[in-house]
Design a protein that fits this description.
It is built from two helices and four strands; from the N terminus they run βββαβα. It is of the alpha+beta class and about 80 residues long. The protein has a single domain, classed as Alpha-Beta Plaits (2-Layer Sandwich). The strands form two sheets. It has a two-stranded antiparallel sheet with strand order 1-4. The protein has a two-stranded antiparallel ribbon with strand order 2-3.
Length: about 80
Amino acid sequence: MALIITDECINCDVCEPECPNGAISQGDEIYVIEASLCTECVGHYETSQCVEVCPVDCIIKDPDHEETEEELRAKYEHITGES
């Protein structure tokens, strides 16, 4: 699954620089995650770095973008050009 940021986001700016895929950006009201770029850090780290640093635990799995570990790995390989 890709991740989403809920409206509990306090715009603290700590998640954006942690994303190795550049999937997080400032939205109109809160930070947002581009599902097509989010691999939950598969291929980069053992855990989702944005979730690790979020002080309010507002980053959750997006039920509208369910993906398996293999699909996330394939997305990582596509984004990075690795295989």
